[in-house]
Write a structure and sequence with these properties.
Layout (H helix, E strand, L loop, with lengths): L1 E4 L2 E4 H9 L10 H14 L5 H22 L8 H39 L25 H12 L19 H15 L1 E3 H4 L6 H17 L2 E5 L6 E5 L3 H7 L11
Helix pairs in contact: 3-4, 6-8
């Protein structure tokens, strides 16, 4: 709101700031004149602005409070706590007024942005009308021979995919087969070394499988293992009785007889 009084002419919130900073004496401000001027403006206005009216009430309340404190007699000694309490209330009202102005200015800014955005029209995608006939021909330069070759490639049967298994290790013999083999060889040899039992093996995997088979026989108690020193020769001695051999039977019956 714009005010025009003998000591000041301008916005009402600026006047309040000058009074708070003691740059304008509160006694020189006719509050009644300000209220009368506001009522006169509102009477001729097209519509009643509740925001402006509430703002005036806040400012007028602060001015009345400040002026009443100056007009009322005060005791000679005023406690500092009471004086600070009055100052705190005044500062709180001023802070609310400044906050109100900030929100009001922000709302006006958003309203202006929305209004400007409503005036803009997005551009349609695609080529403009004069350039639509100038689009390149995607089939330009393609001959019937090119189409024939493309059809042959598309209709030709695709080769069957081949999976390379050369890197996959295939065990030539299983542990069960190696156990069946040792069941036949060890009773006839009595005591044998591991080197002698695997001298016919061609790959490392065959040796590993027979070592696992010997461990299986040892677990069952059919053989005894002896190694005099670390990394020395491993001796295998068959200790199973004849009843075990008869129970085992043919090598193919190993899986049926599981100890």
């Amino acid at each position: 709101m714009h005010v025009d009084i003998p000591v000041f002419e301008g916005r009402l919130d600026v006047l309040l700031s000058l009074v708070t900073d003691h740059k304008v004496d509160i006694f020189d401000i006719p509050i009644a004149s300000i209220v009368d001027a506001f009522l006169a403006d509102m009477a001729v206005a097209d519509r009643f602005d509740i925001d402006t009216a509430s703002e005036l009430l806040v400012v007028a309340a602060v001015l009345v409070e400040l002026k009443s404190k100056r007009l009322l007699p005060v005791p000679e000694e005023v406690e500092s706590d009471e004086e600070l309490a009055g100052t705190s209330e005044r500062d709180r009202l001023l802070a609310r007024l400044l906050e109100l102005h900030a929100y009001s200015a922000g709302a006006e800014g958003f309203a202006l942005m929305i209004e400007r955005q409503a005036r803009s029209v997005p551009r349609s995608a695609g080529l403009d009308e004069p350039f639509r006939d100038l689009a390149p021909d995607l089939l330009g330069g393609v001959t019937p021979d090119d189409l024939a070759r493309a059809a042959v490639r598309a209709l030709s049967p695709r080769p069957v995919p081949m999976v390379d298994l050369s890197h996959v290790t295939v065990e030539p013999v299983t542990v069960s087969e190696a156990v069946a083999e040792l069941e036949l060889r060890l009773p006839l040899r009595g005591i044998s070394t591991f080197r002698e039992l695997t001298e016919h093996c061609a790959t490392r995997m065959e040796i590993i499988v027979r070592f696992l088979a010997i461990l299986e026989l040892c677990k069952r108690g059919w053989v005894e293992l002896d190694q005099g020193r670390n990394f020395g020769e491993l001796h295998v001695r068959w200790v199973a009785t004849g009843s075990v051999l008869s129970a085992v039977g043919a090598p193919g019956s190993f899986e049926e007889y599981d100890g």
